[in-house]
Each structure stands twice: as structure tokens, then as C-alpha cells.
Amino acid sequence: MLLVVVAGAAFGLTPTWQWEGFLTYDDNPFRYSLTDLDVYQHREQPARFPIRTSDDLDANVAARLSCVTRLFRLPGSIETGMKLHGYFSNWDKSYGIADVGLNQGTWVGGRLELGYTYMPNYLLRYYRNPETSDTGDFTACRFAEHLATVRFRQQFGALTILPEYGYEYDDYQPVFDHYDTKIHRLGGEVRYQPVTNLEVRGEYEYRRASATGPVPDASYSQQEAGLSVVTRPRRLSRFSLEAGYTFARRGYTTSNDSAIDPSHAGRTDNIEAAKVTVKYRLTDVTLTADFDLQWRTVVAAYSAAIDDIKDYRQSRFGLGVVFNSGKGKVRR
């Protein structure tokens, strides 16, 4: 964020900033299956579930700085942001995200957007320690995520197209190095706004992931598609409603034999999500409420037990407030 302020000062520009705070109830932050939740609630395997609660409150705060620029008489911006998630009961689940982006106009209706996001220490859940598996020891499975993206935005009247490419690297802690993964992400978004108070958005992404392995080998290919609608009533222009649904099918691509990697060989995951967001804008403050559901169904050809571990249902309900310091453009 300091770099944005320095860059703005150097060119005589004044940065604008945005602050937001949310409190969200999450009924399954570790994304445990119904079977695992039942085991945890009956305290049958305490070493496997060293958690305080199976649900939690997530308090997150975020700040963004944006500095409007002009290159060859074309408008652009330099932006950076940071978000911190703090869980009330399971504090070790807390994490942070930082990002930086460049947004530059190219020609009429066209913009080039470059971005980098870093998440340094995200806890998935507690897995059996592969180095001491004979003792039944469980340890935290954490990883750092790096994501670089390039996106082009082109507007044709009421229609906007946004093709995008991203390269992601997930770096797991040493004991889980076999999960280190390089992911190519290719996709885009189409937005159609026939009138000022209605916008329809469709998106698609293809992922090709290569894990270090060799056993287990979590490499996969995934296709994901989504559709959402944003509307603002004419007589209540400060009010907005967004509803969306996404579906992803992930097929694991390991060449390992089912005898040595039954949890990935011949396995397909179907992941679905639905979300509703309601916003009400005051002057520089926007009040927000959202509710989202996510669920995963696993079909495994060689492991009858994997769906009892990986299937999950998760719902989140949050309330928040967003404050903008001025009229400068801040990317969301």
C-alpha cells in the first residue's frame, strides 16, 4: 500500500481508499463431511479433530488504496489491498490476503488489467502426518498461494467481454510437499447490461493443475461455469440485489494405479455454489448482507470411503459495511 501512496505523491496524484468490515457466521469452516462432523461431535477421534468448534465466526477487515494515473492520455490506476480473516474460536484458521494491480486503458472501450495476489498461510484442515503415519499423528496442512493474472476488458455498448489468464502456484509446508501444485487458469466473463438497473453475467474457467506427487498425485483438470444477475429497482436506486450460481467439475488426472493411489485414481468432484448479496448505499457508506451455500459431491471409482471424507456442505451468512473515501475508482 505504501508503494501506491509514494507513486501517487511522485506524480502529484491523490490516492483514494476503501475500508470494509464484515462479520460472517460459517457453519463448516474446515469443510468436514457429515460423517466427519458426526465423529467430531461424539469425540471419537480427538487427535484427528484438534479444533474447538465445528462452526465459527469470521471477522474480516480489508483496506484498499487506489491511485488514478494517465499514460499517453489514457486513464488507468495502480491499486493494492489487504484483507485479514480472524476466526473467533479456531484462531489457527485465521489468514490474510494481499494483492496489487495495474489497470490501464488501451483504446476506446478497452482496458488491460494485471494483478498479483498472495495468501501466505492458509490452513485447510488437519491431515495424518505422512512422516509419522504409523503413530496416528495428525498435523496442520497449510499452504501459501501465489496467483498472477492478466485480463483484458473490452466494451461493445451494453456488452462487455473479459478474457483472462492466471497462473497459480500452491506451496505446501514441507511435510506435504507432494501437494505442491502449478495451475494454469484460462477463462473469462461476459457481462450484458441492457438497462442501467439490470446486468447479467456469465463466466467460464478451465484449470489444468499439475501436482508434485508422485504418490499421492492430486493433479486435475477442472471446468467451471457460473451465471449471476445484478438488479437495482428504479425507485430504490440505492438498493441492489445480486444472485448467482456456479458449477465446477474436477477430474483427477493421476496416472497412478488405483492400488497405490485409490483416493485420486478415477475420481471426480462436483462442486456447486449459490450466493445472494444485498447492498444498500448511503453516501460514502454501503451496507451489505450476503448468504452463500457451497457443497461438494465426490464420485470415486476405487475408494468407497473418500466421499465420507471429502463430501461437504457449507453455508455462510455475513453482514458488513464498506466505506469509500472519495469518488476514485476502486476495483472490487
Question: What value does the average pLDDT take?
Answer: 91
Which spans have pLDDT < 50 for at least 5 consecutive residues?
A: 327-332
Structural class: mainly beta
How many separate helices? Answer: 3
Ends: how far apart?
A: 16 Å
Report the principal-axis shape: globular
Which strands sit side by side, in order, in the main sheet?
1-2-3-4-5-6-7-8-9-10-11-12-13-14
Strand content: over 45%
Describe this structure in words.
- The chain has 332 residues and is mainly beta.
- Helices cover 7% and strands 61% of the residues.
- The chain is built from 3 helices and 14 strands.
- The longest helix is centred in the N-terminal third of the chain and has 9 residues, at 2-10.
- It is globular and about 65 Å long.
- 14% of the residues are buried.
Outline of the structure:
The protein has helices at residues 2-10, 34-41, 306-310; strands at 16-26, 56-71, 74-87, 95-105, 110-128, 138-156, 159-172, 181-195, 198-211, 220-231, 239-252, 267-281, 285-300, 312-324. It is mainly β.
